[in-house]
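Hi F.,

I've been meaning to write this up properly since the lab meeting, where we talked about keeping a consistent format for the predictions we share between groups. The idea is simple: the sequence comes first, exactly as it goes in, then the structure tokens exactly as they come out, then a line or two of notes. No screenshots and no reformatting. I'm using this chain as the first example so we have something concrete to point to.
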Amino acid sequence: MPDFVGAIDQGTTSTRFIVFDHDGLEVARHQLEHTQILPRSGWVEHDPTEIWERTRAVVETTLRTAGLAASDLAAVGITNQRETTVVWDPTTGRPVTNAIVWQDTRTDRICAALQNSGAAQLIRDRTGVPPATYFSAAKVQWILDNVNGVRHAVATGHAVFGTIDSWLLWNLTGGADGGLHVTDPTNASRTMLMNLETLEWDAELLALFDIPHDVLPAIKASSQVFGYSRPAGPFGGEVAIGGVLGDQQAAMAGQACFSAGEAKNTYGTGSFLLLNTGSDIVRSKHGLLTTVCHQFAGQSAQYALEGSIAVTGAAVQWLRDQLGIISGAAQSEALAAQVDDSAGIYFVPAFSGLFAPYWRSDARGAIVGLSRYHTNAHLARATLEAICYQTRDVVEAMRDDTGIALRELRVDGGVTANALCMQLQADILGVPVSKPMVAETTALGAAYTAGLATGFWSTAAELRANWKQGRKWLPSWPEDRRENGYAGWKKAVARSLDWVDVGAR
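Output, unedited:
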């Protein structure tokens, strides 16, 4: 058995290839950024060909610098930015247009029309998500309706759709020379087209979006041998492609959150908090998304509730870039530590509205409770608290939907380097917060999923044993301080609403 497993981590701004050993420890990596294409306001695109070229380059560079060959890898997993939409010609491998990124909002009118037509409840019931520009189906419809010749190309077998995982897997397994057109349920559940119960494309939804079934990839379990890389590809030999997971679900696997009631929060520019609900499909009544957590070969799917927060780490960047009160993100901790509390001020960073659980596009940023006593240190501390209060909002919604009281929150992402923020998170939630030793949980989760498919790891229990705590923060606030602080936060959120007429264009 080879000694290592690899993971392709294709993100919104860059692509990484990381090699892990049997203990889940990083052995080697390389990373490259790709171009962010912004043709007009609200439009965000990537060049799929550039992403594939970057993927080849990071794989080749990592293996070369580490002195590794394809024969040293037991398997490779893929994790990816979800929802980003690619349509390409399977006979040539050329994209018909740039990929439309998950952040892109050009489909707002399509989604608004669905909302107004009453189709919203059908979409939510079948897929667990609402009609929103975030998801893939409206992006595919836009390409079919607005890029010349694509409808005809579909009819003649010259156009297929996939999210980034499908695009990479197709290229790795041969491209125009027999490449496999497949995806997994975690990515398919982000399209507005997959039935959560059957894990199949839903004919009624395909008709609603006018998307032919033939353009869609086959849906396979997240952990299985999908196929093998071609020797002419970046690995220089045959390697089993054994796992595919969307990025947030991959982080769940990397954090070993395999059982119902386990949760993780990934703190980046925004945050993504997922709660494993096991085999239960919990349909949220409190502003959360229902999604597939993972599906291992031969097993039923596991599901999750997901809460996405628009602005967390970006609020610290705002202190640096717009206000200039810190020179770098790390300084926010030292500045906030100069005071014992925020002295009654709250910062709601609703720069472009609030995501889960509010979903209020009319909200805007607000700093409330100010007096002449307050300093930049109080604002810095209120910013860190805002990250934590937004997380509590999502945790409260998850509890209301499931009845599950969180026992621990596992955390990863850049903000976890701020120890004060993580202590505040434990205090505001009232539960322990744990950070793993291996920070690259997204890539690690893809590696785990691939390794399980090939026998490199035997069971999820073996992966649990790999998880090692890097640091733990325990709650220190008394209950009255916790609840009074949260009540103040809710008042501050109320002040941020109704600032923008969302109908104005």
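Notes:
The CA atoms of residues 86 and 99 lie 5 Å apart.
The chain has a mean pLDDT of 93.

If this format works for you, I'll send the rest the same way.

G.
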